[in-house]
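dumping the sequnces here before i forget
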Amino acid sequence: MVGGGKNAFIGAVHRIAAHMDGLIELSCGALSASAENAVESGKMLFLPEDRVYLNYEDMIRQESKLPADKRIDFISIVTPNHVHFGPAMMALEHGFHVVLDKPMTFTLDEAKELKKKADETGLMLCLTHTYSGYPMVKQARAMVKEGAFGNIRKVYVEYPQGWLSNLTEKTGQKQAAWRTDPKRSGKSGCMGDIGTHAAQLAEYVSGLQITELCADLHIMVPGRKLDDDGNVLLRFNNGANGVLMASQVAAGEENPLKIRVYGEKGGLEWAQQEPNTLIVKWLDQPTQLLRPGVGYTEPLSSFAQHNTRTPGGHPEGYLEAFANLYRNFALALSAKMEGRKPTPEMLDFPGAADGVRGMAFIDNVVASSASKEKWTKFTI
Amino acid sequence: MVGGGKNAFIGAVHRIAAHMDGLIELSCGALSASAENAVESGKMLFLPEDRVYLNYEDMIRQESKLPADKRIDFISIVTPNHVHFGPAMMALEHGFHVVLDKPMTFTLDEAKELKKKADETGLMLCLTHTYSGYPMVKQARAMVKEGAFGNIRKVYVEYPQGWLSNLTEKTGQKQAAWRTDPKRSGKSGCMGDIGTHAAQLAEYVSGLQITELCADLHIMVPGRKLDDDGNVLLRFNNGANGVLMASQVAAGEENPLKIRVYGEKGGLEWAQQEPNTLIVKWLDQPTQLLRPGVGYTEPLSSFAQHNTRTPGGHPEGYLEAFANLYRNFALALSAKMEGRKPTPEMLDFPGAADGVRGMAFIDNVVASSASKEKWTKFTI
Amino acid sequence: MVGGGKNAFIGAVHRIAAHMDGLIELSCGALSASAENAVESGKMLFLPEDRVYLNYEDMIRQESKLPADKRIDFISIVTPNHVHFGPAMMALEHGFHVVLDKPMTFTLDEAKELKKKADETGLMLCLTHTYSGYPMVKQARAMVKEGAFGNIRKVYVEYPQGWLSNLTEKTGQKQAAWRTDPKRSGKSGCMGDIGTHAAQLAEYVSGLQITELCADLHIMVPGRKLDDDGNVLLRFNNGANGVLMASQVAAGEENPLKIRVYGEKGGLEWAQQEPNTLIVKWLDQPTQLLRPGVGYTEPLSSFAQHNTRTPGGHPEGYLEAFANLYRNFALALSAKMEGRKPTPEMLDFPGAADGVRGMAFIDNVVASSASKEKWTKFTI
Amino acid sequence: MVGGGKNAFIGAVHRIAAHMDGLIELSCGALSASAENAVESGKMLFLPEDRVYLNYEDMIRQESKLPADKRIDFISIVTPNHVHFGPAMMALEHGFHVVLDKPMTFTLDEAKELKKKADETGLMLCLTHTYSGYPMVKQARAMVKEGAFGNIRKVYVEYPQGWLSNLTEKTGQKQAAWRTDPKRSGKSGCMGDIGTHAAQLAEYVSGLQITELCADLHIMVPGRKLDDDGNVLLRFNNGANGVLMASQVAAGEENPLKIRVYGEKGGLEWAQQEPNTLIVKWLDQPTQLLRPGVGYTEPLSSFAQHNTRTPGGHPEGYLEAFANLYRNFALALSAKMEGRKPTPEMLDFPGAADGVRGMAFIDNVVASSASKEKWTKFTI
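..and the predicted 3d for all of it:
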């Protein structure tokens, strides 16, 4: 693991997610830029002293020298955005698979380069767009794909948070500090952090691709340098239209990412804060509530089932969705290492292509927001 | 009443709303363009035969000749949009107050002319933007006004319906037929019918005015002549931004108009299908559910209380919200007729100014949608 | 109308409900035991002076002497429980139909006597168990009746209110005062006031009858004379079991009457505070949300449709449910007066038989609560 | 681990819960009564071959002979009820701490004996009443304890499931088979399996103890030997009353365990299927929604915070609640092993005393249901 020392939010989440299914063991780490923190964090995590590294370069170099049955199989990178490309590229170059937090890199060019390297080496790269790991998101995607709703006409995705309603970054909150800092976060704040999740979810569930957009980004809290709020009109490759809203100044909101997709015959609605219900609406039938783990006569899609651990009514949450990424990645990796062909369910995790589209999304919304033209083509 | 014969949806709603509080009596009608329907409808409504008119011109002329204690006090106009201006103007000219269905007229110019006449005559005009009649909408407006949320940053209003997902207008559905017909509806379909409701609600609750917009209207069902779907980016006069979505092809949706407003200290959420709960979110306090008719230590605003008929937990709905418009109009009218000064609560119903803004909203979104410029100034 | 003067809660509700559909006109009243209040209330309601009576005896006598086309058709009685029997019996004796607030009378014997008189005279008696007037309650009953859920196994009804959590009756609250007073309310407080609603709803929806019960009533607020809380185990005539809970000391609750019924194949859930959704659960199909006014391929029952005024998504509430009782009563009355046969939908309002069962319910729960025997037979 | 071989539901849950926080490692197992299954399951779980045992006696004996730094610290027992006492007692006798699935044992006497042994040895015993592991359940308990609601008056707990609506046990469903078999489950089916959860939750949240009960148990599906449904009236040691309902034939229900507690000043509501919201209702203040991980000005209780892993809006679920039991148990164990005093938060997991009360609950409801007396004293 690169990053994720004491008090890091997302590093702890990665570890829980990786541990959950008993398939992955944390073996070494370059856990912090601070040597002291790195050592202390290593202890806290019961790592052997000789595998607690002080920087990722050492870690990758040393680990690659270990015999195959001792060394790590893959590297998780959970650092701020500006420290994604370096360790990821080096890991790929040394033959390690990679799990990488989103957004993929600091710039679009880095993302393309990284994708190219992954393609060349044949190594796997998993990008932790957590929300696509939920079973009912899988079900939503499967239903759209099967044509349950006919041609899709409208995609409505929203991601309002309230945690940056004040200048939290000035109060010593580490999360807020790097996310609002162009030097560590990149050219967008809100859209980079959560807009990318919303865009990935929109494309993942609808099976469509954004082709044009019209963005209106804002800095609502004076004194901030990056957008903390934005609204984007969308057009998709099949003619559907959409709206993407993301905000970090929606005071009082926690994390209610929500998507609605409408087609000719009906629509669906899924909300992250109540993730175990997929609301399915029909033109001339009563609305249905689809739930994971329940034995319906017409079963849920194999993708939903594969990503469910508990029987109906035993709610799974964010950590399980996150763990599904790790689990699928690990299952696919094991299969490959053992010469088996991974199933489509195993391979169903976000990868380098999503990462490149995510970075392009950031570039395009920032460009559109600065433009007087209504529509900006989605270019990569 | 002008319009509202047998089988007319909104005419029946107007009558229930007018009757509900025992303050208003239906006395005469020009209920249908078809003489037969007009007569039959008059019978059905227990109207005296001599006050069942075959057209509004006759009605207004005849009624204005009756002695003051016999003739009607005001006229309700519940016809399709292209028959709003004529009877409304003639009513004002003959000294009758007017209740008028929205949107106010067929064109913006008509709306301005009507407003001018109402202003000149001092007669009252009530425009039935039903949704602003709900008690918890009143409460929302009052809280924003009192500064409970600080400066407003974002307004998010959505109005997805699904009833025009197919070419319903070709199946003999009268409602669908006139609403999709440019000759009767005007230059916009979806935005004129429900977008205007959403815009009025956004301005009413936030106390702000839209100053710029960027619209993307669509005809999603081939063969239709007017927009049946649209997304609009908004900017308000205090610097807040917003999104307005309205659709009649959101298959599976009924009528879930919903508004969210976020300020510096918190936000609110209100949804028309569960109208008796106002969700109030705070930056650092638990979310609260405000409900009408409950005796809180810190009571609801006088506007919410005035528009509530039942004690807590006895749900009121759409018809009561509609009746609140009639009730306030009737109370204000009675007060005026009796030489009393109407209270602010009585005068709190949408009027000619809202109507003009609504017609301007239609003009501006249609213009913006046709433009390649990102932003269109909201002009009247 | 007997009772229902200024400030009376349920009288005002009755008037709104009666007015709503334009079928009923308030023509006279004995509105208060206080002469002053009676006269003032009559003015407020625009009643002609000569039909504002000072007591119900005068009213019934005088009205019965008027010519048929002038006099009232029926009498609404909205007084406290101890003044139900007198006016109702006298009205029946003078040939007037009756609408009567629940519970039917002060004692079970009175109820039986009243039922006998109604049966003998052939006059109609409508008992305002409001909650059975909701369209989705009608739908629930229809689905159970059609066997959609197979044999019913369990009925779970709850009615928690919080308004008597303190000794409100000592603070001048009139509603609380008579409802907690054995001389005006009868032998039970909570069970008489709201337990009867819950029991009627349970039997109405399930189509079953309670045959045995085991009650545990409580006075939770010291200083009170009648039960303010209670739990009752139920057994039904088909072998189903159930629970009925009613409380007026469930602090913080408004009026969330709720019923759940489970059969072999599925179950249903309906809650009064969100009355426009009937949740239907299936053994091996996704849960469905049934909603009034929506055009499903398989339409809602004719009873649900008949009691719906608005299209889907335009919520109806408590006042409409109440108005459905009056509307059906008026439609059945008109039909009878005009020699037509009322439809089953028109006749679907609670009557004398429900009233007798309600009074027996009160007697039986009070007896059971005082008994050390587990089960008390439901006797009438 | 004893039990929990391939296809066992609760064994897998235990493992995920134990793994989640990286504090516990599965080291050995007697995973199945079938030797073949035991061996295969051991492989599947990456256990070293020499620590895959064929029965728990071998396991406990062998492990106790290993040096302290090699042998296991505690044993998890996840077998059907009739195989709880044996391994648990033997584990305690050999100095191992115990995690034990509920209900504690097959008979009340066994439970008492086990508790005695645990008390004597000073070894820890954790009983996996999962639902008390949720952060918002902790918050509920804390608020009641602090007197936020005043004296508690009413506890309403319900646990309707639908999975045994048919004779599932005859279709080869292993879960259903042992749970409906008196030889493996004990003297109660539904009340033993889920009624005990409901009772434990009621006492845990309210801080009260059941002193009397009146039970009505049923076998609703013909051909079954143990109760599959029941309703119980409750009385508590402070004079509060309550209702406990548990059913496995509530067709269409998943696992919606729900508790409501009402006191003098307000009440609370928590439902397992949406576990991240605690609804708090006040007599004269708006209802509040309390949520884990949110930084309120008045923070959640230390118990809620300690049992939360994610920031607000990142839902945790059943597996996290389960993991909280393991985590607290492990933290307390580590503290003890390292000579530190465990914090109250660490020690907050259900133990032998809860287990004895649970077994007594089963005995008492079964006795009460068979009795004609209304009330049965809760005896241990």
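The two ends of chain D are 30 Å apart (CA to CA).
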